[in-house]
Amino acid sequence: MNFWNNPIIFIGNWLTGLLTGWHLSAALATIFIYVVGITVLIVFAMTLDIGLVWVERKVVARFQDRLGPNRIGPFGLIQPVADIIKMVIKEDITPIGADKIIYNIAPVLAATSVILLWAILPIASTIYGVDLNVGLLYIVAAGALGTLAIIMAGWSSNNKYALLGAFRMVANMISYEIPMVVILLIPTILANTMSVKGITEAQSGMWFAFLSPLAAVIFLISAIAELGRSPFDLNEAESEIVAGFHIEYTGMKFGWFYAGELLHAFTFGGFMAIFFFGGYGGFFGLEKLAAFSWLNIPFVQALVFIAKAMFGYWVIMWIKYSVPRIRIDHMLAFNWKFLVPLSLVVLVNTAILNKVLSGLPGWAYVLGMFGSNILIGLVTVEILRAYGRNQRKAQHEPATPA
Q1: Is the per-residue pLDDT at 1 higher than 60?
Q2: What distance in Å separates the CA atoms of residue 299 and residue 46, rounded to the nearest whole number?
Q3: Is residue 401 scored above 80 in pLDDT?
């Protein structure tokens, strides 16, 4: 078997032959290979996370007309390593009265919840952890661990401001999980599978972003809220609650929260690429032509996926450093009064049209799905404009005497 065609299987077979040659049983050899694979995945994710620290600081510097890291190493590339060393040697402080066990588990659980998502992330057609037939349910379940880590950190810190930040963040995350779960059903309907890899392969001819652009936008908004990034970063509203649920954490314990947030943002950029932009594939059928057969090489697919995920991550950063945070009542009202109903409308529209248009030619199916989303968007804008006019009219009318 050629290494370039299927590197994971090639390395796995090589390790199996090597271990069995050492008179190790097949069962133990398989367990050892799984452990090695998991370790390599975690190391890759953490190494990428270190790079994301540099990228984040460089991007925010450009938005704020600054230079960013530029001292340690060429272009400041070694700055994240210096930051890690600084956090490791900082004093580890545990507040008096804190629940030490839960307090220490919370930051590890926050990072673990992100690493677990990488188990089903298809980086290429042959580079992935596991292909679950209920992959979307796994995403929802693994993401819930992040919510649990935040409430554990806020409650165990014995600090009312940390607890307040945790409560606000959990209210935010639980609320915006509703439209996200609803939107995840749309790729399921279009691909006829809940497998993350299956959804990627179903977009070889057409990206789902063209079939349901509103779903892609709603997923992006819900993902940003799930991450707790601006304009939904009420868990870290420094002017109100001193830094949120992790105010009592120092050194590398705080570093785990920070690393988890950055890797989570990149991971959601990757999932957005998978669900709506073809993931590692989605070349509109070009990979089936002999002249473009190189697009099927796993390492090329991995580069394509990372590029798409980085673009999604850049969009999330762009919004974070451009939009101010909103009040919590406005944030929750936006979700329950606008985003949830809109996501349900888009879901019902997708389900009906997918059935009605399934027998038509491909171009008619795409135009029908895309046109229906544009129509829903126009109707939504008109409803919002009418609501805004009524609100302004009510504000200018004199109050009725009691």
Answers
A1: no
A2: 20
A3: no
CB 268 within 8 A of CB 212: no
d(Cα 13, Cα 33) in Å, to the nearest integer?
Answer: 10
Q: Between the CA of residue 315 and those of 52, 56, 268, 318, 375, what are the distances in Å?
A: 14, 12, 11, 5, 25
pTM: 0.89
Q: How far apart are CA 216 and CA 315, in angstroms?
A: 13
Tell me the three state secondary structure of residue 204.
coil
Show Cβ contacts of residue 109 under 8 Å, excluding neighbours closer than 6 positions.
Answer: 145, 146, 148, 149, 152
Distance CA 146, CA 268 (A): 13
Q: Where are the domains of the chain?
A: 1-89, 93-382
- Report the alpha-carbon distance of residue 206 to residue 185 in Å, rounded: 18
Band of residue 127 on the pLDDT scale cut at 50, 70, 90: confident
* Three-class secondary structure of residue 71 per DSSP: coil
Q: What is the pLDDT of residues 89-98, one digit of tens each?
A: 888 888 888 8
